[in-house]
Design a protein that fits this description.
The chain folds into 2 domains: 69 residues, N-terminal domain of TfIIb, CATH 2.20.25; 146 residues, Rossmann fold (3-Layer(aba) Sandwich), CATH 3.40.50. It is an alpha/beta fold. A 7-stranded mixed beta sheet has the order 4-3-2-5-6-12-11, with helices on both faces. Helix 3 links the parallel strand 2 and strand 3. It contains 7 helices and 12 strands.
Length: 254
Amino acid sequence: MEGQQNIHKIQPYQRLAAYYDQLMDYIDYDIWVADIEELVQPFQPGSSWLDISCGTGSMAIRLAKQGRQLTAVDISTHMVDIARQKADTQSVALNFAVGNMTTYTDDQQYDVIINLHDGLNYLLDITDIQAFMDNTYSLLKPGGLLLFDVVTPLLCQTHFRGYREIFNDEQGGYERFTTYDPVSQLAESVFTLNTSDADTVEVETHIQKAYDLPDVEKFCRSSKFKWWQILDDETLEKGNLESERYLVLLRRPA
């Protein structure tokens, strides 16, 4: 895609939504579902669940197939449209909505809220994280559970310093280049996508922030939640400074 002259900047997941499942094809969603079930089982939560950063619905659809009553929300209308099509194709009943994880409101409360696969890392400021924590707290029933994951600086430094990927298909594909700044803890992924005009490309820029263990502990302590666990996503044991990703489970007081 080099040498293109005309660059049109577009919103994140405006076109990349169509490639999201390709980007995430390394993930074993069945393992993720099994881990979620293992973590929440001791609390015996009810069946009303909210996936507040649902992407193309892969997690929500699997959980709905297990009898959960799922509402799936994402900030991208393009992602929600694909998720709805996937659910319809598989004859899975879900409720869908477009909304921001920090401000989404509903006329009901939930037993479990999940926010997985780097959703929280799109929040770049502690005030946004506090808003997310406050909002999800208000959306939970007493005794309800919030489960989210967090990518750490170690993961970004190990895998995303100067990472390049090229994917081609009949629709033009994309070229991805990701850089990571260990000082700001910001990872920037630039996706360049061809268009039907050979002289024009469209560019989506995705910026995420990595958070280390003290960061995660701080925004848990600053929240309204009184109980939480910060776990290593591989072992489901207590998270540590060698973890590349944390799973964070919080419970609203009953």
